[in-house]
Task: structure prediction
Amino acid sequence: MQGKDLIVILGDQLSHALSALEASSAENSVVLMAEVAEEASYVWHHKKKLAFVFSAMRHFSQALSADGWDVRYRRLDDEHNCGSLTGEVSALLEEGGFERVVMTEAGEQRVSAAFEAVSKDWVVPLVVLPDARFLATREAFASWADGRKQLRMEYFYREMRRKTGLLMQGDQPEGGQWNFDAENRKPAKADLFMPQPFRVEPDAITQDVLEMVERERGAHFGVLDGFWFAVERPQALEALEQFTREALPRFGDYQDAMLTGEPFLYHSVLAQYINIGILDPLEVCRRVERAYYEGQAPLNAVEGFIRQIIGWREYMRGIYWLKPEGYTDQNFLGARRDLPRFYWTGETGMACMAAAIGQTRQEAYAHHIQRLMVTGNFAMLAGIDPKQVHEWYLAVYADAYEWVEAPNVIGMSQFADGGFLGSKPYAASGNYINKMSDHCGGCKYSVSQKTGEGACPFNALYWDFLARNEGKLRGNPRLGQMYATWGRMSEIKQQEYLQSAAKTLEEIETL
Result:
């Protein structure tokens, strides 16, 4: 008698089109899904993130059962929970009757390594299948990168446009150019109509999860009150439709803007649904593309949104697997300072930081400019250990998984890989934040004051960052103008910046 397949579905693989499911059948399989302490605690995950993942897992397991699959589901608070994914697989294998373990490749290297190590002791083989939810396989990205002196997302993005046909007219891009980013840098104003993301009232399953997370992981970062995420595919599809209808038309113009009291602006807040599997990235892009061709949204908005998914998202995954060992330990700039406590509390007089961290605590969400040019920019300017920064980002956002988060932080935000991913450090003074937000008007610190008591901390830290890293960064052609400006300053002015930055860093915990 032929044994059954034991299909392992990870918490971020909630897709009915998953390769592991398509490789078998409901009649000849047992599906294992498990909430385990190892995954819940390897970083201090936001409580809303945990609740989202666990609730989405439970809803997906019910959907599979309704489709005829034999699902074995282990809750986090089950008495006999093994505490690890591999432990749960090993325990189920002891029951016998299985011919092989089948899984779609894990997104994170630590999970992949754990299964590879433990499976050597199993009496049945482990079959690992490609994750077809991505447009570029790991091998395809490695082939694209092979032999290139520099890896730049823009060129990879063009390949993905050609491959998918998204916004293409034959071999040429729609509108005659590949990238409309120059049109997408408008600051927002408070009198604009701000749509809200699609919100879902927690059902009985989600309510049960919320109570369990508070009971089992109550000390974790963030708050559970006001949980509104979609946890099933039909709800996520409604969220996509609402974004396309209400926010997409202005997404392009204001995607880099920040506005006090408006955490979402025109952003989709769909990344967590795509990354967990209940929305497919290509279907999202096709829907947004259709909005352009039907005259519902302008090209700069649609192109900018699609670029984030088939460009940045795919590119980050490619980089992550291209550099599989030690990427998160890289520290090109030698930053050693500990992450300040206010990254966890949000208690700081810097209005931009308080806004970004405060909404992160509340919503497990901040948009890309808040992550890159506020919390990330400050961390890099202050010389904070990039691995601590990486672990913070991985913990606090509902859409964060290491394959997408680590390259964004280590490579793009902190320049800790020395330029492997990005062409320059994304460093900026308070002037950038003042231009793209309304935070500075109500801040404890003055953005117009460059040094001394009451000056915006970003101002002196910016020049201090360039000065202390001059040996490593001066040769970067994209920083030539900034170093020329620094060189033209009087020695007295330079010392004012350096001394002001030193005082800021000395008092960093009380900013």
